[in-house]
Amino acid sequence: MSDLLAARSQMAMSLAFHIVFAVVGMGMPLLMALSEWRWLRGGDELDLLLAKRWAKGTAVFFAVGAVSGTVLSFELGLLWPKFMSWAGAIIGMPFSLEGFAFFTEAIFLGIYLYGWDRVAPKAHLAAGVLVAVSGATSGMFVVFANAWMNTPTGFLLVNGQPADIRPMAAMFNPSAWPQSIHMLLAGYAATGFVVAGIHAYALLGDQRNRFHQRALQLALMVGGIGAVLQPLSGDFLGKSLARHQPVKLAATEGQFDTESHAPIRIGGWPDVERGRTRYAIEIPGLLSYLSYGDTAAPVQGLNDFSRNLWPPVVPVHVSFQIMIALGTLMAFIALWAAWRQWRSPSIADSRAFLWAVTASAPAGFIAIEAGWCVTELGRQPWIIQGVMRTADALTPMPGLIVPFLAITLLYLVLAIIVVMLLARQVRESPGGSQPQPRGGGVLH
Amino acid sequence: MPSLELLLGGVMLVSLTFYALLAGADYGGGVWDLLARGPRAKAQRELIAKAIGPIWEANHVWLILVVVVLFTAFPPAYALISTSLHVALLLLLLGIVLRGSAFIFRTYDATAAPGRWGRVFALASLFTPVLLGVVVGAISSGSIHSPSERVALAYFFTWVAPFPVAVGLFAVVLFALLAAVYLMLETDDAALQNDFRRRAIACEAGAALMALVVFLLSQHDAPAIRERLANSWWTWPLQAATAFAALGTLGALWARRFRWARICAAGQVTLILWGWALAQYPYLVRPELTIHNSAAPEATLLALLWALAAGVVVLLPSYWYLFHVFKGSTQKAPIRHG
Fold it and tell me: What pTM does this model have?
């Protein structure tokens, strides 16, 4: 394994790991705050119990997210010092603002988790809301920085060096909003679906359990709204790609030749040697329409670009297809849930529905990982699109396979432990139809 | 008006000070968890967990702030440090991850064998600040540079040396001192207070010893910083103030004036850190990178200062509230039972 590949693998693995925890740390606080709000409004102890249960999950995920995020803030320099030396002054802005969002999140989560009997009920709910808001803000700022790597703005390139740096223009680069909105919605959808899946699974064994019914309802509401809105934000992002990263768009779509009436390809396998995408279902003109609002508009293909500027086409296209397929599935389940909610007294009546929700529990997270593969692989060979190649940013340290293996092993162990803790918590969930809260603090 | 880069250097120093005073004490708590002994070992561990539980994550963010300001305002310094100290920083990260994860696993895994996560948490709490001190020591020694030959071993020579290791041990002793002093105010149990009072006094002796060792080793390993410490006009007032704070801590411990002990110990650690910063000034990494020649363009520095100012407006009241809720009084009456 070359040092470059080891470094890229370590970065990919660190991000893939951190994203899960960051996303849950964003979505779970919303769920727990919503549940607590319902409790304060209606006085149903079930809502309080649910808020406390969800808070436990939030605590574990936030802590692991916080430390794995710290790893990333160092890894940028450990693996890509030349990138950071070049770009730190340009993209430091969103990172420093993120620092404060992270502070607020950590502070109010501390108050939320340990302050049940120390602050007034409304102040406690406000702490939960602030955790949710600062979690979302923090995620947004980090994605702003990543968006800059895709569409670098806010500086002039003079003799290969940045000049005339404008940090605000860099932060609000063209991809900033499309990417961060897409990520936020993905976060809520993924968290909502995974939580809904867990409670749906519990309901399959105990269909009348009010605790799980309530949980399923709230989780599907949050996840469902995210999933239904996501195609719109995806379209927003796709149009931005068409304008700013045509090579990436061509790779995601498996578009080799420049053509008008370009089709959307569903599925398929790009044959890079022959320069065409096989076995895809094609909807003619749709790609042209989605990209430029005109079915006849020409869409640039990969062949317009030098071969050494192509991202790895097969993984990018396949990841994109996985993301789209799972996103569509989630949107349909969300609509199904809305229909059931409207037509039936309890959404938990249908076993088929519960099975579908259970089965789609991991869909959001797989879609997120696939989506990040599209974003990151689709930008290759660049670390800063059009400005700096990934290979040129690499640290001179040899033997990078060792840190890669060390971090991988560490994260593997952590992942196993978190899954075990989570599984135990789910098994210990309240049985019967009238569970009693256990009172006192969160920690028992 | 000080220059922008000096202001940002000051921001980094203040953040590092908060990190040492707050997160440092959290690490120190972990050290006391590791060393919990005697009939009250369990009570000691519970007190430590209760004290750091609500606040350690917020305290940890000061380190992120230092890193972010470093790579935004002084990008070449961040790149050089993270290249030449790759191995030490990687080990530091392993410590940070293990400490935080093990603490949260211990809190939420009631069924695990007692002490399983606690042991990992405690060992990582000892190991991590040593590495932190090693990194600071290596940066101060003036010997770090990006190794010119692509040999993995060269990336150990940048920090495996007596001076950085001594600084690491000095850091641990100081953090343990802070933790012991703070913990006395977290309980009303006189026996527990006495346990930590004895520990704090021992740490004060250990701190004096390590200060001497670091100073002696600096002659060979960190000559430039030694020269500044020995020959600057500010050094003797500073050293006197530090010694005064240390004696004040001891005196307050002796007289059982625990609030005074807290103020003096925090002052002592702050003065040590600021003394180091003064000796380091204007260098970030000797002998090449100063806060001036590695500073980002003015537009970045200015924008960053505004962002920090805006951030502080949100941060300070929130932080104050956090400490008001959990550290206001050991006798705070519960408002309600959920």
Answer: 0.92
